[in-house]
Design a protein that fits this description.
Low-confidence stretches: none
Number of helices: 3
Distance between the termini: 24 Å
Strand content: 15-25%
Radius of gyration: 11 Å
Order of helices and strands: EHEHEEH
Structural class: alpha/beta
Number of strands: 4
Shape: globular
């Protein structure tokens, strides 16, 4: 199975998680996967309009995988 779309979310209070999210999104994009970023994560990471943004409620819609940066709580909260 190949990944074509991936949602990413990060713990907003953890700068390393926000940085890792941006790096992962760029890496996925370079491999032909379309990253979709959770709206609050995109705002806190100051990503601008580089990738599509979705509200938390739609994070898992129409994607192959959800990737969380920041710990178990970030994933459980998603």
């Amino acid at each position: 199975m190949s990944l074509t779309r991936a949602s990413l979310i990060a713990r907003h209070t953890l700068p390393a998680a926000l940085s890792a999210l941006a790096e992962a999104a760029a890496h996925l994009e370079s491999r032909g996967c379309h990253p979709v970023i959770e709206a609050d994560s995109a705002r806190h990471a100051e990503l601008g309009h580089r990738w599509p943004v979705v509200p938390r409620e739609r994070l898992a819609q129409d994607v192959d995988v959800v990737i969380a940066f920041g710990g178990d709580g970030t994933l459980l909260d998603a």
